[in-house]
Amino acid sequence: MTNLKGLVLDFGGVLTTPLVPAALAFEERAGLPEGTLLNALYLDEEMVRRTEDLERGAITQTQWNTAAAERIGVPADDLMGRIFADLRPEVALFTAADAARRAGIKVGILSNSVGTDPWNLYAGHDLEHRFDAVVISEDHGLRKPEPEIFRLVLDRLGLPAEACVFVDDTERYLPPAAALGFATVHAKDPRHTVAELEDLLGVPLTAR
Ligand SMILES: [Mg+2]
What we know:
The longest helix is centred in the first third of the chain and has 12 residues, at 19-30. The chain is 45% helix and 11% strand. It contains ten helices and five strands. Helix 7 links the parallel strand 2 and strand 3. It folds into two domains: 6-17 and 88-201, 3-Layer(aba) Sandwich (Rossmann fold), CATH 3.40.50; 19-83, no CATH class. It has helices at residues 19-30, 36-42, 45-56, 61-72, 79-83, 91-102, 127-130, 147-157, 174-180, 190-201; strands at 6-9, 106-111, 133-136, 164-168, 183-186. It has a five-stranded parallel sheet with strand order 3-2-1-4-5, with helices on both faces. Bound molecules: magnesium ion. The site of magnesium ion has 7 residues, from loops.
């Protein structure tokens, strides 16, 4: 038996297909040398700072698009949407989330935002109705891995960290969650993630 009663899911890369292959496909479509975009996003300190500002809601997606376009030498228009055009819902994880809720487990979303205008990663998913809590970083001026944002989603779920599993595709967000008391799962392959969650939560999470 398990004492876990809550499941906290990241959105991009957990409830969607992985981000890096989508970004690599964008580079190819844009005729950029492989790695141009990922280097600009993850290794350029100024862009890393801008992305963190975007996640906190301190700048808009349009401002981010302008800055990123300048860095990588492409048009700014809806750049974030063009970068992630290949992302699709990760059906196995949506199915698992629904099954967990049917089994009485509370399921929340904890997502570092990339802004919602002009491109909205969350559009069409009806998150507010589908989940027990939805915490999008830009709405709170916070971002993972700050402990305050983990506490916020716990508060909304009405559960202590020790009763919850946290799932993220960004591995560096897991230790801060574990330090608060969460069990953690690093999302890489969806089937593996669902199997790990079934083990931890003690309920079947595949389609009925
Ligand atoms: Mg993610």
